[in-house]
Amino acid sequence: xxxxxxxxxxxxxxxxxxxxxxxxxxxxxxxxxxxxxxxxxxxxxxxxxxxxxxxxxxxxxxxxxxxxxxxxxxxxxxxxxxxxxxxxxxxxxxxxxxxxxxxxx
Length: 105
Prior knowledge:
434 Repressor (Amino-terminal Domain), elongated, TransReg_Diox_bact_type
């Protein structure tokens, strides 16, 4: 597997790798400290997979880092597009419009 999961996964992985390298930790070191298999960390760092929140917190905690440093600036636009472009606000507006139309009838 060589393709990125998403732009967000690529950016997140690069940030984790940079933090690990700044601390002079090997993948094996970080894996042992975080309780995450080192091969999974490698996949995360290469952007091939996107970690769960639990894994992200484990990695950050093992490096004495706040998980927000890894995710700051990531947006939904960095992930593959959903099939729809609706937001919760769009849904609420549509429901309110339907309710107004029913009340007017």
